[in-house]
Every structure is written in C-alpha cells, then in structure tokens.
Amino acid sequence: ITKVTVASQVADYVHYDPLAHITSSNPSDVHLYPEIKRKLYSALSEGDEGELSIGVPTDVIARQVTAFATASTEDTENPNAQQPSAEAVSLTVRIEYSVRNPADGLEFVLPSETYPFRVPHMFTTPSSPDAARCWVPCVDNLWERCTWDLQFVVPRFLDSRSDAIDAAEEGNYPVVVVASGELVEQVAHPYNSSKKIFVFTQSVLTSVQHIAFAAGPFHVLELPVDQPIGEVDKDEDEESTQPQMHMFCLPGLEPLLNTTTNFYRSAMKFYSTLGSYPFGSFKAVFVDELPTKRFDSATLAIVSNDMLHGEDAIEQIFESRHLLAHALACQWVGINILPKTWSDLWLVNGLGLYITGLFFRQVFGNNEYRFRLKKDIGRIVQLDMGTQPPICQPTVFEPPDASTLSFVNLKAPAVLYILDRHLGKSGTSHGLSRVIPKIFLTAISGDLYGNALSTTSFLRTCRKISGVDPRIFAEQWIYGSGCPHFTFNANFNRKKLVVEFMMRQYKRVRRNTKRYISRKAAALAAAAGDQEAAEDIGLLDEAFGLGLWEDETERTKWRVTDWTEEDEQRMATATYEWIRMDADFEWIAEIMFDQPDFMWVSQLQRDKDVVAQIEALHALARQPSNITSSFLTHTVLVPNYFYRIRMEAAMLLIRCAVPELNHVGIFHLLKLFTAYCFQPQQKKHEFSTRFVPRPNDFTNVQEYFVRKSIISSLSQFHYSADMDYIVPRFLIDQLKYNDNTTNPYSDGLYISTLIAAVGASLLPIVTPEQSQLIATTQAPQEKTQAAELLKAAAMEVERYREMDRLVPSLHNVVSIAALEWNLMLMMGNMIPNDGNIFLKYTREGNYTGVRIAAFDGLLLMKWYTSKTLIRYIMSVIANDSSRIIRRHVARGACESLGILFAIGDIPWAGSKAQDILIEEDGSTPVAEKKNPRKKELETMTKSIRSGAGRAASLRECIMPIILAPDTDIQVRSCMLKLCDLLYRPTEESAPTLKITLPPTPIAEVPPAIPSPSIPINVPPKLKASRRSMSSFSAPYPPSPSPTATTFMPRLKLSTKSFDARSPMSVSTPTLPDAQAMPPPPLPVHVVEPLPPAPAPVAPPPRPRPVAAPTPAPE
Question: DSSP string spanning 116-176?
Fold first, then answer.
C-alpha cells in the first residue's frame, strides 16, 4: 500500500498481516509444533477482524460534525427540508496499492523450461477462504455486497514488441480480459498505443467473493440465440431478451470448446422457466492450473481445462455437462441468492444441485436421473451412520469443513427431492415447482432482504404455497441426522384377505397400490375377453422378453436353468405378483424386504421403473443360484432394459461365480463378452482357446457401457484350480488384440479399464497380515503358468504406456492406468517394488494427473526410509510450481503413513501376537474393551512414530515449510497434521506476567482517621432496670487473628443522666469533636482503631448495663 486518502485527504494507516509473522521460539525443534498451531489459529481469528486500519483525518471529522449539525438545525427549523447532503453521510476512501507475486487470490500461468509451450494467462483463484482480500482491499465478507466498476489495462497482443503493434503477426494473439459484470467498452490506451483498456461494470449488488476476472490470449466463442420454429423472421429486438453467452478458451483448444459448451443455450432456457436470469450476460473461461474444477462468480465461471472434451469422448460428457450446468444454476441461487447464515448453506447448495438435476433429467432422460438419485441415496445411507452431523445446525456459526461440505452437498438435493414428493402428495400437486419460482421472484424484485435465504423462510414459503406444515419433515431430515433401516416380511392372511407386514421399526410404509390395482384390473379384463386389455398385458410381458432363449438349443448353450415344479406351484398359488416398499421413492433409508425369488423376477421383468429394477437385481444377488444367474444374464442380453440396469446386472453376475454353483456366473460373463469377439477356429475347451475381439465400434453407446461393465465384473474373479487361469488369459487377449483403427470414438478409457481388470485378476486370493513376509516365503516361479501370464501382462501394459507417451490419449488416462497397474501388483507382492517407475513421471513437464498418480505410487514405496527421497518430496511440497501438486503431495504424505501401517510395511510398535493372546486370555482391561478404536489409534500412532518419526532428514525439512510466510494454507495444515502423527508434542509453558511495583517501606503506619460522633435519637425518659436491659449489652470485641496483631479499640460508653430531648452519644475522649451524622438503627456497635501501641491492649471490662428508656405518659 502506497497511499490512503479519506475524502481526498491523506490519512494514516496501519497494515498488518497476522499470517506473515508466525514464528517459533526454537525453529529447529519440530516438537514445538503446538505453539505454531496455536499462533496460526490466533492469526486466522485476528485476520477476520481486519488487516488494514485507517485513521480518519481531524479535518474530515470536523467537516462531518459541522455538516450534521447544520442539517439537524435545518430539520428543526424547516421539517419539510431535504435530507442531509451526501457529503455529510458518506466518505470516499481511496487506497493505492500494488500486488507482486501474491501467494493467494491470483494465479499467473507462465511458460518455463519444463513447460515451454504453455500459454501465458492469469486469473483469480479460490486458493484459500480469504482469497479475495489477497488481491483487493475489501470487507471480505459474503454478506457485504456492493456495485463494482472494473478497469483493466493490458497489452494489445501477447507479444508486445514494437513491430507487432500495428498488425497482428502470425502466432501473435490479442489479449482478452473477461470479468464479472457487463463489458462497457474496450478502448485503446490514451498514452501507450501498445496497450488497451477493458471496462466492466456490475450494477447488481455482489459480494467481493463473487468477483473474478481472467486475462490472456483467449479464443472467444459466442453462443447464438435459439429461435423457435416459425419465429425466424421476427425482429432482432425481440432476441435481445435472452442474455448474451460467451465462451473462452486458450489457443489450440477451439475444437473442444464448441463440443463442450454447445448445450448452454438450452440450459439457459430451462432455468429461465423457473425465474428470470438475474444478470445481463454469462461467460465461461477455461484455464490451466485451477486448484478446483470450477470457480463461480457473478456472470462468470472459471473452469479447469480438464473439463474440455472432443466429439470422440463418451464418459466425460456426463461429468462435464453436469458440472457446467451447475455453474449456470449457481447464478440464480448461490450468487444472487445467498444463505442467511452458514447453517443455511445446505439450502442454497441443495437448490442449485436440485435444479441442475432437473435439467439433467431433461437432457439424459428420467431413467438416468432416477438411477443416479438411487445411487446417491445408497451412498448417503452408508455415510450417515451416526457420525455425520445434520445438514442444518442453527447453533453453528462457522462454515463447514471440506469433508462435511461434501456430505451436505450429497444429501441436500436428495432431501429437497423427497420434500417435493411430500408436498405434492399431501398438499397441492405442484410441490417445489411453485416454491422455487416464488423464491427467485422475491429475490429479483427486492422483497427478499439482502437476498439472503434462510431455512425458516423457505419452509414458511412451502407451507403457504402447498398448505402443508413441513415442521415434522424438517425435524427428521433437515435438523436431524441418520437414516432409518427397515426389515420387512410379508404374509398373506387368507381369512382376512389382507397382506400382513412385520417390521422391526415402526415407520410409514407405502405400497405400490395403484400399479397393483391397475395390473389386477387389466388381468380381469383380459380374462373376460377384452381384446385390447389382452394386447396391453401381452405387450407388458413381451417388453423385456428375449427371443433367443425361446430355442431349446440356445438355452442349452447358455446353461439356462428353468423353474422347478415346486417353484411353479408356489407361483401358481401366490396371491400377488410382488410388493414394493416405498414405491414412490420418499425415503432416504435402507429397506430390506424378504419375498421369494420369483416375485423379484416378476418385479424385474414387469415393473418399468428403474428403481424397482435396481432393487430386484440386488435382492436376487443376495440369494445366488442358477436361477439368479440365468435371469441376470437375461437382463444383460435384453436391449429394452435401460443400459444402467444392464450394467448393474453384469456387475452382480460375479456373485454367482462360486464353487457351489460350478462358477456359472463366470461362464455367463464370458459367454456375454464373446458376442464382441470373433468365433474361435479350434474349440478344445469352451473358453480355453483365444478369443480375438472384433474391431472396436462404440457407436452404440449402451453396448459400450455394458461391455466395460462385463470386464470390470470379470476382474473381481481370482484364480481357481478348476478354472485354470481362464479369466486373466481372456483379459490379456482383449488387451493384446484391441483394434481401434475404424472406431470414431476414443478408446483411452476402455484400455484403462482393461489394464485395471488384468491387474485385479492377477492379484492373489488371500493376502497375509504382514505383506513384507510374502517376499521371502512366496517367490514367483518363472516357469509356472502364473509367471508366464504375469510376464505377458507386463509386456502389454508397458507397450501401451510407451504408445501413450508417443501418441497421448486424452488426459493421459492410459499412462495413469499403467502406473496404477504397477502399484497394484507391487502392493500385492506380485512384482518387486521399484520406485524408479514412478519417479520419472513425477517431474515437472508431465500432465498433472500423471504426476499425481506417480506421487501416489512413490509415497507408498516407504519414502520415509530414504534420505534422498525425503528431501525430494519435501522440496516438491515447498517449491513446486503447481499448487495442485503441492497440496496433493502434502496430503498424500499424511495418508500414506496410515496406508503403510495398515498393509504392514510399518511394523507394530509392540508384538501383535502378544496382543492377540491378551484378547484371547480375557485379561484385557475393561476400558480398552469398551473403546477398542482408541487403543487402535494409539497403537498406530506409536508405531508410526517409532518407524517414520526417527528420520532426521524429515525433522529438518518440516519446520522450514511450516514457518515460511508464503506457504499455502492447505500445505501448512497438512504439515501440522504430519507432525501430529510423527512427533510427540512439547507442552508449552504457561505465559508469565511480570508486574513491577514501586518500593514500599517495611513498617507501614496507617494514617489517623477522625472518628465521627453518631447522634442517636432515644425516648424522652430513662429508668434503670437490670431486667429490661439484660437484652442490650455491648458485645465482646472480635478475637485477634492468629496471623496478624490486632489492637483492640478503647471505648467509652456514657451513661450519665440527660434530658429526654438530648441525644445519647458514644465518643472517645481523646479525639476532637466530630461531625454529626444521621442516626443508624439500634443496636449500635462502634469500633474505632487507635494509633498503634507498643504492646497489645487487653480487652476492656464489660460495661454496666443501661436501663431501657420508658416512654413518658401523655
């Protein structure tokens, strides 16, 4: 900061960065990390209160006081006068500053020796929670919003040479600036012809955390406005109602940009049906080295280049479109609408993901949407087992951490989905389709205060529109945590003609009554002779039929198992076909329902809902049999099933690959995959010969996904004596003879799946507890069949790795799969550990994903045992040019120690056999039995400290990284966690406070205090009477303290006769007259100290009682 002015006057200021002054009392002692941790947390708290203090000049203060005084006088004299001028109520603060090599907030991507072809550009980055204050002085708060005017001065061209100013040369790209807000103008610099100025304005109130910009030689793509059919001849003025949309990318990526973003106009139209777009335009720019996949800001989304894909991509289309569609949805809710408090963050994030899912349903279909929702609910049930907090905690005022936020983002849209079902069933039939437009309308019209949405106001809006009180729903799903688990059994009561359910937990259960009644009515109509009803029910039965299996010869080839007579009799006597629990999909729960397998088959073949089909598939897989394998194979073969259902059936077929069933599941999987291969010429055994695959043809995307699922399912089967390595040999042949020359789509991810499947099929079935014992007890025999297969697989993987180095696949997915294959077999002790395979891929210049995979393998090679490797890894954490790599390696250094301990590479601190004997003997203490996880954590920490914590090189490298002022905040946090694992903390001594007092004399004499004379009003006459005065006597003085010398006061009680109108006085004869004071209530005990005497004075004798006064007669 060079200068600060307040109201055009220079002001004094103090700029203090708390994070730049973190030190340690002994920088070389790694055990003092608790001190650094305390100072770091204190600095973060102090930084939230502000880092720049500005003093307002006295002249400005006097001017303001005068202006307010004048305005108040005018208001008093003339009530109809106008309000005070702006000069009296506002101050303009101007801060002149410069930023050089910022640690956070801004990212400059420049070419270097390792990346010579990188295009230079820069952008704002969310590298830390307080990244905004690192590039602009501001009130770094989400709820402090204002308008913005931005001006950028940049070179006209990427090469700013004087001879390239007038005209752009070949390869010299013009520099473009894209920022939040609307582009007002682009003009030439008035004083330097080699520069130009971009002016942006943001008229909508926006937080500084939602302001971003990027500058570089970007290619600009304008998305045209969609015109409905029949309205092509309308005026262009009507087209301006749709906001402008521009996409930006770096040179060389232009073909990928159009393929990736061509859906944005349809997304804008879909979201606009829920509410008007709150801004004037939308822009998306794709950059390198973004630490997250996406950074959202007002009218601008900064996206990583990894999201770009070409026309030959298949899988990445789903991920890229969902992520980019969510970026556009966040413009409505997330940027224009903010959470009122941090506890309401679930609502804002959930609404954005919910409406993104609605658009995803429109693009990819309802089956894709419901299938993904079912999978998300399954993940929620697995995670929310009591360890996760509620998604809304009104008493928590801090933002959630990364792990909690990921769970909130997973659960929030599912909660809104079941809320929509709840409102639609109980109230109106619209649900959230009317609530969300109402919220968007109030935000744009200004009726939503501060555009901050709270959970309470959202539920209130739901109640007003639908007429349903959602308080019980909110207590269960929003303010509560955990997911219910149900187990049901059904029995048909023939006497009452009802189906009785037994459940372990009392919850609301919905049955698919409508579908059951309609099915029954159709059957009765068909039996009565209704031809149309018979055709309808026939079509339903034939929808998932397979003509191939109608031939007995084919059924024999496929080993199809038919129902037994007992099963057919049970099916004939069954009173209903199947029952579905929660058929309307209104619960986030795990529901286990027990019914016969033929009912699950009926549900699988006759219920068109993909959720019902998923439930039937998993229920059949829980009871493996020949019947189950046959119907799962049937599901894979029928193309009328949704392709995700076919993939799920292929993955579940491995459950039937058990010796009890003669590995019928493997037979069916191999039989399914032979449809993609040439027929073998010689057939010694059914699958003993080689099956050469046909040239790849992925034009049928559904068959492509099913093919990959079969390969992944086969990889889960390991060696069996009666199968004779059929699966590994089959997969190696598919990898060896793969041909993609005539395929219009890329096969990079398909080859990656094959490489991973070959590695998984070669792993041993049983791994011992201590993996380091395998190297000495199970050496591979080179002449055995297993060794030959391993050698052949290694040759094919190495061939593909070299091919990917010469002709790279998209994002080098084949090289990543080859590195993971080597790591997998090293962890299984199938090949010797060799860190050099990973080391050469960790250097700068490789793709970031390849470097991440290489570092993952290198960190699992006992990196803490090599001094050279320790210094290399720590230098990467401290000095690597990529923030993504620094963070990943720092996090991997912590996680690798736990993995190495789990697989046995870090030995136990104590004898593991001894621990087992203690548990068997029953002599384990009760406290350890109650909390075994605590004992396990203590044992792991002790083992890691005794193993990796003794490395001297590691001790020397950690502290400089922690204490460096420009260390990334996440890297410093990971290094402190690493210290927690490796070193025992040294307790800090309590802070001492020294107070210097002025010298005082040894013997202190208190000053003489004058004793006041206390007048007491008494009745007019006194009459001596011992009996009446026995209750009024002077008390004894208090006993002297044993620790201090107390001097007894000398008292004199005057009992002379006096007139009734004169007051009684208690006084000391040696003191002067005292001032009169108001009388206190009786009895009176006045003790007055005297000057200190040379010796203690004995207590005075007990005074004579004084007769109580008697009132005079009237």
Answer: TTPPPEEEE---STT-GGGTS-S---TT-EEEEEEEEEEESBSS--GGGSSSPPTT-PBPE
Query: Residues 1099, 1059: contact at Cβ < 8 Å?
Result: no
Among 156-170, 527-541, 805-819, name the most confident range. 805-819
863 — phi, psi (to 5°)?
-65, -25
Q: Which residues contact 538 (CB under 8 A, 6 or more apart)?
A: none
- Residue of 886, 279, 375, 988 whose CA lies nearest to 651: 375
Q: What is the DSSP string of 698-751?
A: -SSHHHHHHHHHHHHHHTT----TTTTTHHHHHHHHHHHT---TT-SS--HHHH
Residue 848 · residue 884 · CB < 8 Å: yes
Give the span between the Cα atoms of 322 and 364, in whole angstroms.
Answer: 11
Tokens, residue 570: 């049970």
Q: Which residues pair with 339 in a beta bridge?
A: 453
624 cis-preceded (ω within 30 degrees of 0): no
pLDDT digits (tens, 9 = 90+) for 141-154: 999 999 999 999 99
> Cβ(378)–Cβ(611) under 8 Å?
no
Residue indicated by tokens 């291969």: 677
d(CA 508, CA 468): 17
Q: Which residue has the tokens 């009591």?
A: 386
d(CA 403, CA 382): 15
Burial class (CB in 10 A: 0-12, 13-18, 19+), 590: middle
Quote the DSSP letter at residue 335.
Answer: T
644 close to 610: Cβ distance less than 8 angstroms:
yes
Nearest to 303 by CA among 272, 326, 279: 326
284 versus 17: the higher-pLDDT residue is: 284
> pLDDT tens, 686-720?
666 788 999 999 999 999 999 999 999 999 987 66
Q: Is 775 helix (H, G, I), strand (E, B) or coil?
A: helix
Between CA 814 and CA 842 the distance in angstroms is 16
pLDDT tens-digit readout, 70-118: 766 665 555 555 554 544 567 899 999 999 888 899 999 999 999 999 9
Local confidence band at 994 (pLDDT 50, 70, 90 cut-offs): confident
What does each C-alpha distance from 934 to 142, 443, 927, 938, 983 come to in angstroms?
39, 50, 10, 6, 18
The Cα angle at residue 301 between residues 297 and 305, in degrees rounded to 5: 145
Helix locations, 333-431, DSSP H: 345-364, 366-383, 402-426
Spatial separation of the C-alpha atoms in residues 856 and 809, rounded to whole Å? 21
Pick from 492, 501, 487, 343: nearest CA to 412: 343
Q: Which two tokens stand for residue 492?
A: 């048909």
Strands 244-249 and 281-287, how do they pair?
Answer: parallel
Cβ–Cβ < 8 Å for 1102, 1010:
no
Pair 765, 831: CB distance under 8 Å? no
Smallest CA-to-CA distance from 796 within 818, 780, 813 is with 818
Q: Residue 660 — φ and ψ, nearest 5°? A: -60, -30
Give the span between the Cα atoms of 814 and 801, in whole angstroms. 7
* Alpha carbon distance 260, 221 (integer Å): 12
The amino acid sitting at 605 is Q
Q: Do residues 1110 and 1022 lie in contact, with contact meaning Cβ atoms separated by under 8 Å? A: yes
Mean pLDDT, range 794-803, rounded to an integer: 96
Q: What are the beta bridge partners of residue 198?
A: 152, 186
How far, CA to CA in Å, does 1026 sit from each of 751, 914, 955, 1030, 1032? 119, 90, 91, 6, 10
Task: Let me know: does 415 contact 477? Beta carbons within 8 Å.
Answer: yes
State the Cα–Cα distance between residues 851 and 856, nearest whole angstrom: 9
The string of pLDDT tens digits covering residues 622-648 is 999 999 999 999 999 999 999 999 999
Distance, in Å, from the CA atom of 437 to the CA atom of 435, rounded to the nearest integer, reads: 6
